[in-house]
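Hi F.,

I've been meaning to write this up properly since the lab meeting, where we talked about keeping a consistent format for the predictions we share between groups. The idea is simple: the sequence comes first, exactly as it goes in, then the structure tokens exactly as they come out, then a line or two of notes. No screenshots and no reformatting. I'm using this chain as the first example so we have something concrete to point to.
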Amino acid sequence: MAADLSYIINIAERTEPDTASPDGAILAGRIRGEWARRNASGASRKQTWDPAHILTLLFDPPGPDWAQQIESLFSAWETDRHAHGPDLSDLVTIGLTRFGVDPESVYAQGAAIAAILGETENPMEFHNPVHHRKVLFHGLRLIEENNRLFANDPRAILAPEETALAMAAICIHDLMHDGKGNGHGKSYVPGRLEQQAFDRARPWLHAAGLDTEDLLDIESLILSTEVTPIGDPAAPAARMRSAYEFHFQGGLVCELTGKLTRLQGRRDLARIGMLIHVADIANSAGVSPAMSRHETALFMRECGIADSGTDPLPAFLTGVGAAIDQFEPARLLYEPSRKMILKTIEARKS
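Output, unedited:
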């Protein structure tokens, strides 16, 4: 995979006014910096990770120490993501190769650009480039399990271009997150952060060759990741889950509004949306009790509620986390860990 970064920069800055905004300038600088690094004499990056080990974690059935190995990898990323790979570009390359995406296609180019954007510096405790890596890691695991589980049903497996669009959406779904959430009560603005993330990335994805329909798909997938208000059936992620239930589990006719209406008539998009949503929450709800506590602590520090005396984890696990039980590939992958997490939480309450 070798996106022509100079060409994409030129096209975007000539045709996309949004690249001149302050945020656009930051992202342009990120892409220019990556272009310079790749073209610098002798600048080949030293590989700091074992490909065989990463491929085992991604694509083999979980072993008895799987959770501990995941915790170790993600901890290294949090300690110094620049020193420890694989980064988003590495993970996207693995995904493109594993799932047969043509490296010269616009889908591969779009995923490649999204991976570069997704590593843009962000000081947030939780919603930062390491979060993008974690979600893509779980996303690749879920694509593998989905395609294995439904190997005899061509309609259920993700096509190569769908895989690339899913990876692109994951890489940018929290791009330049400000840590403020989407508000509460009367101040709640549905999809504020998710829409901003997509709008920032859109010029670069378009310049990479993705067409309007592809971009609308990515936009709806990103908007579907918003889980707030937690417990509210009107939350975008809850509405996406209702579309999944309608298409795959005999649920009632799904009435969606706004940009999520694409999910109503799109069985394929509802499946991808569910997969991305589960990947987004898997690290908090499906690895281990320690990981769930750690992710919750990061989130609470980011929100400024670490000392509030509240514990959002139980409600999250039984509400939002139930998507893991609903999505069969995720249930098969994470059910043993999820049972342990829920049992631990119950024990702490008693």
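Notes:
The chain has 16 helices and no strands.
The chain has one domain: 5-40+51-349.

If this format works for you, I'll send the rest the same way.

G.
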